[in-house]
Amino acid sequence: MAEYVPLPLILAAEQFAKLPGIGMKTAQRLAYHILTMPAAEVNGFADTLVTARSSVRCCSVCRNFTEKELCTLCSDSRRDSTIICVVEAPRDVSAIERAGGFDGTYHVLHGLLSPMDGTGPEDIHMKELMERLSGNVTEVIMATNPTVEGEATASYISRLIKPMNIKVSRLAYGLPAGASLEFADDVTLARAMENRNLI
Amino acid sequence: MAEYVPLPLILAAEQFAKLPGIGMKTAQRLAYHILTMPAAEVNGFADTLVTARSSVRCCSVCRNFTEKELCTLCSDSRRDSTIICVVEAPRDVSAIERAGGFDGTYHVLHGLLSPMDGTGPEDIHMKELMERLSGNVTEVIMATNPTVEGEATASYISRLIKPMNIKVSRLAYGLPAGASLEFADDVTLARAMENRNLI
Fold first, then answer.
1. In whole angstroms, what is the distance from residue B32 CA to residue B10 CA?
2. Residue B51, phi then psi, degrees to nearest 5
3. pLDDT digit string (tens) for A72-95?
4. How far apart are CA A126 and CA A145, in angstroms?
5. ipTM > 0.85 (yes/no)
6. Measured between CA atoms, how close is A128 to chain B, in angstroms?
7. Contact call for B8 and A52, based on CB within 8 A
8. pTM (2 decimals)?
9. Partners of residue B124 in chain A, C-beta under 8 Å
C-alpha cells in the first residue's frame, strides 16, 4: 500500500497477512473493516485473542488444548484410556470427535516429523507418548494426515511401538464419502481397490 | 465446537467469524493458529488492531482514512481540487490511486444509499460533499460500484449536483480488460455495445 494509506492501517494488514490462508488482498480488506468497527468491538476482539493465548495450555497427559491441568477428554472416566489415537494437531481431535464413534483418548503431537524443515522426534510430543505406553495401553491408532510427513511420522512411531507388544493401527485409506470415481486421484483409487472389503 | 474445546478458543473463533468473508471453518483454523503463536506475537497483533482503530480517523475534507486532520491527498497541492471523485469506501480510493491516471481529489461516502437497509442520505457523508461544491469545483466523478445501490446513489447525487452547473460524470461501463465475450454477462455486453467507441 502507498503513502496515502495511513501507516497503522498498513501494519494491521501486515499482521492479518501473517495468519495462515490470509493473502495480502484479504488482509487489506480485514484491516479496512477493523477501522469501521466500533472501538469497543475492536478492543473486545483484541482482548479475546490475548486471553485465548494466555489462558489455554496443553493437557499434561494428551497435550490437547485445555484451560485446566487435565483436558475434559482425559478427565472423563467413561473414555477408554487403553486406546490412544495419535494426531498431529488439536484441530484433528475436534474433527474425530465431531465424526463420533471413537471413545478412546488422544495424543496430540503438535507437529509431524519433517527432515526438510528440520523437525525431528524431539520437536514433537513423542517422548510424552512413549511415556504413556508404559501403562495399560492396548492399541495406538496413528491418525496423522495421509501426506508424506503424516505417513513418515506414523511409520516411525509404529516401528518404535510394535516391539512393546502394543497393537498399532492406521486410519483406513479409500474413497471419501460422496466421491466420484471419475475424479478420484490415482493413489486414492489404487488404495481403495487394494483395501476392498467383501460385502 | 463442543465441550472438549476450551471456551477461550471458541470465543476467539467467534470473533474471527464476525469479520467479513471469514466463515466458521476458517475462523476456527485462525483461532487454533493464534494458540500456536508466541504470546508476544499475539499481543503485538492485538495491539496493532487497537492502535489502528484508535489512531486512524477520517480526513476533515474528503473523509478518507488518515492519521492527521487532513489526509495526504487533500494536503497535496499538486492534486487538482476542482475535480472530486466520489467513492463508497476508503478501499476504493486505494484502488483508483493504484490504477493511476487520476490527479484530482476524492470524497468518501462511507456507505451507499440503500432503502432496504434503511440507509438514507443523512447516513452517508453526502452533506459534506455538497458543502465542498460551494467552492471552485468543476467536475464530480461518480465512482460508486456498478451495483443497484451504487447506481442509485450515483443518480441521486448527480440529480442534486446538476442544477449547480457542475459537470457530473460516471465511470465507463464495458468489458473488463482480458475478458472473454463468451463469458461476459448480458448486461455488461449490452452496455459495452451501447457505449462502443470509434477506432
1. 9
2. -65, -45
3. 999 999 999 999 999 999 999 988
4. 16
5. no
6. 19
7. yes
8. 0.79
9. none
